[in-house]
Design brief:
The protein is mainly α. The chain is built from 11 helices and no strands.
Length: 246
């Protein structure tokens, strides 16, 4: 009786589903948890369901998908076996996943797909196609991030150190993920140029150990013999510059 009194007051004040702990929806459901066939509570939820139907349609039409999802969840509690709600849930899941992919948020799309899979919202064949697309987007995002890290570490002067966060390290990771892709080739060329620049500076300053070190790094990531030979000729014919660090 106390719960029904609270529900009536909340309904009159149009607190249908909010605030979270003081609304008619909550009170009517609490009544039914104790008395599953209470007529007033069942009727009250039916009336709230009608209001939520309108909210759901408006949210879908205005592309307020998070609000639509929350409204749909409440409607499912009122009408758990409603076929139309299940169809709307599947449509909403696809729309939200597509929107996440459109915003280049592959990880969010993957999380939404996991939710849809756990609740069996989408048919298996559609789930498989979406997973394939998301996997592709996630792999592409990772390769882009690794390629950017190579460039950033080169600008920072961190060509080979630290061993787990250098341009050399991130290039190796990029090759594992993307193989000989266009991004990998561009990143390798950028790092090769950085190595050869260091070798040129060391060779001109007659720093033999450093010179050989950077040539070795360049060879290791795939610098061609022609580029190495060209640099060696350039250094051997260049005027000597004293080592400023001595």
């Amino acid at each position: 009786d106390e719960l029904l009194d609270k529900a009536r007051i909340a309904f009159r004040e149009r607190r249908y589903t909010d605030p979270e702990k003081d609304n008619a929806f909550l009170y009517y459901r609490s009544v039914l948890a104790q008395e599953h066939d209470n007529g007033e509570a069942l009727e009250g939820l039916t009336r709230i369901g009608g209001l939520l139907d309108g909210r759901l349609q408006s949210a879908m039409a205005e592309e307020r998908y998070d609000e639509a999802s929350a409204t749909l969840a409440r409607l499912k509690l009122i009408r758990p076996n409603d076929v139309q709600l299940k169809a709307t849930e599947a449509k909403l899941a696809e729309i939200r996943i597509a929107a996440a992919l459109e915003d280049d948020e592959a990880d969010r799309a993957a999380a939404l797909l996991r939710q849809a899979t756990q609740s069996s919202v989408l048919p298996p064949e559609r789930t498989a196609r979406l997973r394939e697309e998301i996997d592709k987007r996630q792999a592409d995002a990772r390769t882009q991030r690794l390629a950017e890290l190579v460039s950033v570490r080169i600008r920072d002067g961190r060509l080979v150190e630290p061993s787990n966060d250098s341009a050399k390290f991130h290039l190796a990771q990029l090759r594992k993920v993307a193989g000989d892709s266009r991004r990998t080739t561009a990143a390798a060329r950028e790092l090769e140029n950085a190595y050869l620049k260091r070798a040129r500076e060391a060779g001109t300053a007659k720093q033999a150990a450093e010179y050989e070190r950077w040539l070795g790094e360049a060879r290791q990531i795939g610098a061609s013999p022609a580029r190495i030979s060209s640099l060696q000729r350039e250094v051997s014919s260049a005027p000597s510059i004293p080592d400023q660090r001595k």
